[in-house]
């Protein structure tokens, strides 16, 4: 049987990263659940064994069910009738299999029916599902909205809503509106308190809502009348069982056809407040988006893996000029670059998810008891790392997914342009990843402060102190040289003290930081598992070094007055 | 009403992707080249049983399998999907059984289980393709049987109504409980393994598996769990455990003898359709006798 987990041993490698021991210890609170729940792990080794077994289930369903349905789901898509969404028939089968396998509410505590998995193995499941069908990945992985309800909702809300998500009900996050896309401060959906019924009422329109007819919605709405900025927004929970929200239409999209993107009309819909008033955007949506961004990074890595699988199979099989095209340098260069970006991006994804895991587990412990000073330090350190790495993981992996899908079609030649091959679907599905949950440009905005305040440089210097295998020393030297150039560019731009110039070259600085980070991660991975990563380390450092050189050259030669020629 | 359901399941070599090395020179199966799997149609049967468990709360689904110690894997696979318990019939005396000796052993085990409403298995196993074991079990237990089941429609008032697969369509039939059913591959596929159940039962082991782990001074991992969680001990039954007669078990109870095994290459490119007329049947018999397919 095909299995997208066991066929990609890189995943098992990342699961067994040494940071996982601390993560499991925190998440399992010293394995205290083992006496209360028959499926809780006994110790660290047992926990990793359980994660692997569940990843195997996910890998099998992804390969045998979700991948098999991907083409028909893409063609059929969901339908909208009487204000409701009807999923494609393949989507229903996919969901049924995932629910039967108990792969919902994966990160939630066991007392609510969850699996209490750390975010890292959950993110691996999201990647595995996206290898099979990125569109279905959206519907399934929106379950991670429950993290936000868990973090900020009250106990009563926990007990009423979390078990439903663990049992397989779906979620959506209703944020964007016709006039509030990237700029969520402009959200207008109105929330008013109904004194008579003692509940909130929502009125207005939301647009581009993924899985908009879900069972449970987290809704960003304006609760403070007369306000116009983010401080007047609160977060609400809308339960579909209460009614009041209709789907007006489903968007006709370039890709991810299986995932219904909805326009929603709220007509006096009953809702309840999640957390405190006025913190909707500035606190809760930011948390929600950070989780979602990790999810899109995982989706992107899954798409890159799918692109690599398709390209590799075709290049081996297709013969021209008397030999398989994989033997032509022009083709294997593309193929190796796809694989190198895939391995580098995946290393970045799981490094990020591990950072998130540690600080979130500590945050959760802080709700039960006071953290020790050492734990507070640890929480701070990893929260900062997570904040700085999340925009790198999302932005770079989504760009790589697009580049890899493009090269995948290129390797297919004319056949790639025909609708018969899966590569066209991967190409269309990949396109959204660099747009939704914050465009790459907005990831740059989120990341640039860590360029200028030296956070990335500090991390890179810490990485330089990690020993590598002697045969890889030359890569260490090259990456150090790349890092010096990144720092030189950063300093030059900072010294110019020109905000517009900084904004203008921000994307280049962001990419310089990212490729240095990914080169280091591959170096660390290749040192531990050369059989898996030595080749990609070589290919990626060659690629990254050239990227650094390109940006270095651009920034060094660019004169601020040239901006006049760019401005509109 | 709650039901007692026994699922007959077999561990088989995966013959669906047979390569050149599938058979040994002596005509026996090269088990190393073929991974051992849950017989596919037995999974269809398990799914029907699990659906009944959902619609009839309080029902108990028991897996019954016969094989070497490692066939405990079949019981774990059943537990991972929602079965409640299982028994592994394992004894050297069971080895080499043909369908007659297999059905004898299974029938004895079912008698030992005692309390049952439905005995359900796959139509046939992909290693032997005989489709005889289910019907023989029914005969030995003196129970009615329905073969080629595609869907169980209803169980009520000690009666069952099923759809069964026939040439060119389905027919709906009813029968009294207890009953033996064999399920066709066209029935609903089995549900996936469940994440919680896999974590709960992943250390379930049969006696032989435990013995293999502790052989040569090895230590059984998490040994204390097998006392605090009895469900982790997969029950193994020998011939005497099921009050069996050794002469009717295994090789000695098997009148079927393999005379010769040949590698054949399918050559016919066309199929023939015959009517049920006496003339057609007679012609076919003559033809098959002539080319030594039968006789």
Percentage of residues in helical conformation of chain B? 25-40%
> How far is the first residue's CA from the last residue's CA of chain B?
50 Å
Query: Major β-sheet of chain B, in short?
Result: 10 strands, mixed
| Biggest sheet overview of chain A | 7 strands, mixed
How many domains make up the 3D coordinates of chain A?
A: 3
Using the 3D structure, state the CATH architecture of the largest domain in chain A. Answer: Up-down Bundle
Secondary-structure-based class of chain A equals alpha+beta
Shape of chain A: globular
Strand order of the largest sheet of chain B: 9-8-7-10-6-1-4-5-12-11
Strand-residue fraction of chain A? 5-15%
The radius of gyration computed from the alpha-carbon positions of chain B, rounded to a whole number of angstroms, is 21 Å
* Helix content percent band of chain A: 55-70%
Q: What is the succession of H and E elements of chain B? A: EEEHEHEHEHEEEEHEHHEH
Q: Can you tell me the residue ranges of chain A where pLDDT is under 50 for at least 5 consecutive residues?
A: none
Describe the 3D structure:
The complex is a heterodimer of chains A (568) and B (295). In chain A, the strands form three sheets. In chain A, strands 3, 4, 5, 6, 7, 8 and 9 form a seven-stranded mixed sheet that branches. In chain A, strands 1-2 form a two-stranded antiparallel sheet. Chain A contains 17 helices and eleven strands. Chain A has three domains: 311 residues, Butyryl-CoA Dehydrogenase, subunit A, domain 3 (Up-down Bundle), CATH 1.20.140; 111 residues, Butyryl-CoA Dehydrogenase, subunit A, domain 2; 126 residues, Four Helix Bundle (Hemerythrin (Met), subunit A) (Up-down Bundle). By secondary structure, chain A is an alpha+beta fold. Chain A is globular and about 70 Å long. The N and C termini of chain A lie far apart (57 Å). In chain A, 59% of the residues lie in helices and 11% in strands. In chain A, helix 2 packs parallel to helix 10. With 295 residues, chain B is α/β, with parallel strands linked by helices. The model of chain B has no long low-confidence stretch (mean pLDDT 92). In chain B, strand 7 and strand 8 form a beta hairpin. Chain B is globular and about 70 Å long. Chain B has eight helices and twelve strands. Chain B has a ten-stranded mixed sheet, with helices on both faces.
């Amino acid at each position: 049987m095909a299995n997208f987990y066991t066929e990609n041993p890189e995943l098992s490698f990342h699961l067994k990263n040494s940071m996982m021991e601390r993560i499991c210890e925190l998440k399992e609170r010293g394995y205290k659940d083992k006496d209360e729940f028959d499926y809780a792990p006994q110790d660290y080794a047992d926990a990793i064994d359980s994660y692997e077994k569940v990843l195997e289930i996910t890998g099998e369903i992804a390969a045998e069910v979700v991948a098999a349905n991907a083409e028909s789901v893409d063609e059929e898509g969901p339908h909208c009738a009487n204000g409701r969404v009807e999923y494609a028939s393949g989507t229903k089968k996919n969901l049924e299999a995932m629910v039967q396998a108990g792969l919902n509410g994966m990160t939630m505590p066991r007392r609510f029916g969850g699996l209490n998995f750390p975010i890292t193995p959950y993110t691996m499941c999201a990647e595995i599902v996206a290898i099979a069908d990125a569109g279905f990945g959206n519907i399934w992985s929106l379950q991670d909205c429950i993290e936000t309800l868990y973090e900020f909702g009250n106990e009563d809300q926990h007990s009423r809503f979390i078990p439903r998500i663990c049992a397989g009900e779906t979620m959506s996050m209703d944020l964007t509106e016709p006039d509030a896309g990237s700029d969520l401060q402009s959200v207008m959906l109105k929330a008013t308190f109904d004194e008579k019924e003692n509940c909130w009422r929502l009125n207005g329109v939301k647009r581009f809502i993924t899985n908009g007819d879900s069972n449970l919605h987290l809704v960003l709405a304006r609760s403070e009348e007369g306000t116009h900025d983010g401080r007047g927004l609160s977060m609400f929970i809308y339960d579909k069982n209460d009614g009041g929200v209709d789907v007006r239409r489903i968007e006709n999209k370039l890709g991810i056809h299986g995932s219904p993107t909805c326009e929603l009309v709220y007509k006096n819909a009953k809702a309840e407040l999640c957390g405190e008033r006025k913190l909707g955007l500035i606190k809760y949506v930011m948390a929600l988006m950070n989780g979602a961004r990790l999810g899109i990074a995982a989706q992107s890595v899954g798409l890159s893996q799918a692109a690599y699988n398709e390209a590799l199979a075709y290049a081996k099989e297709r013969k021209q000029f008397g030999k398989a095209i994989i033997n032509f340098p022009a083709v294997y260069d593309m193929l190796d670059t796809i694989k190198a970006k895939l391995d580098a991006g995946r290393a970045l994804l799981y490094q990020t998810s591990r950072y998130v895991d540690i600080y979130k587990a500590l945050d959760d412990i802080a709700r039960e008891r006071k953290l020790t000073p050492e734990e507070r330090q640890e929480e701070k350190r990893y929260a900062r790392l997570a904040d700085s790495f999340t925009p790198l993981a999302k932005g770079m992996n989504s760009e790589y997914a697009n580049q890899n899908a493009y090269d995948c079609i290129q390797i297919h030649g004319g056949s790639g342009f025909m609708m018969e091959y899966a590569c066209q679907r991967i190409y269309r599905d990949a396109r959204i990843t660099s747009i939704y949950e914050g465009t790459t440009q907005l990831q740059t905005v989120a990341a640039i402060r860590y360029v200028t305040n030296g956070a990335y440089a500090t991390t890179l210097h810490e990485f330089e102190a990690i020993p590598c295998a002697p045969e890889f020393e030359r890569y260490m030297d090259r990456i150090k040289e790349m890092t010096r150039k990144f720092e030189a560019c950063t300093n030059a731009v900072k010294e110019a003290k020109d905000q517009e110039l900084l904004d203008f070259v921000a994307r280049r600085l962001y990419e310089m930081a990212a490729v240095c980070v990914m080169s280091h991660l591959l170096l660390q991975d290749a040192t531990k598992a050369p059989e898996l990563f030595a080749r990609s380390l070589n290919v990626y450092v060659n690629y990254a070094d050239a990227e650094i050189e390109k940006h270095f050259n651009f920034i060094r030669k660019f004169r601020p007055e040239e901006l006049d020629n760019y401005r509109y | 009403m709650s039901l007692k359901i026994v699922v007959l399941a077999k561990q088989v070599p995966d013959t669906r992707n047979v390569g050149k090395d599938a058979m040994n020179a002596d005509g026996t199966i090269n088990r190393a080249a073929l991974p051992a799997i849950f017989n596919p149609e037995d999974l269809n049967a398990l799914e029907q049983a699990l659906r009944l468990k959902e619609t009839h709360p309080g029902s108990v689904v028991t897996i019954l399998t016969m094989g070497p110690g490692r066939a405990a894997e079949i019981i774990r696979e059943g537990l991972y999907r929602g079965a409640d318990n299982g028994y592994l019939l394992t004894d050297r005396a069971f080895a080499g059984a043909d369908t007659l000796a297999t059905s004898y052993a299974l029938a004895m085990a079912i008698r030992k289980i005692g309390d049952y409403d439905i005995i359900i298995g796959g139509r046939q196993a992909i290693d032997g393709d005989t489709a005889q074991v289910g019907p023989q079990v029914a005969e030995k237990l003196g129970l009615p049987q329905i073969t080629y089941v595609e869907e169980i429609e209803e169980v009520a008032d000690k009666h069952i109504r099923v759809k069964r697969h026939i040439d060119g369509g389905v027919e709906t039939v009813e029968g009294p409980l207890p009953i033996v059913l064999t399920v066709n591959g066209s029935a609903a596929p089995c549900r996936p393994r469940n994440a919680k159940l896999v974590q709960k039962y992943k250390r379930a082991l049969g006696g032989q598996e435990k013995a293999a782990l502790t052989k040569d001074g090895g230590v059984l991992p998490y040994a204390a769990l097998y006392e605090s969680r009895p469900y982790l001990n997969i029950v193994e039954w020998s011939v005497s455990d099921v009050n069996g007669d050794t002469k009717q078990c295994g090789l000695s109870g098997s009148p079927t003898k393999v005379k010769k095994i040949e590698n054949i290459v399918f050559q016919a490119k066309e199929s023939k359709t015959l009517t049920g007329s006496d003339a057609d049947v007679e012609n076919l018999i003559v033809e098959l006798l002539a080319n030594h397919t039968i006789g």
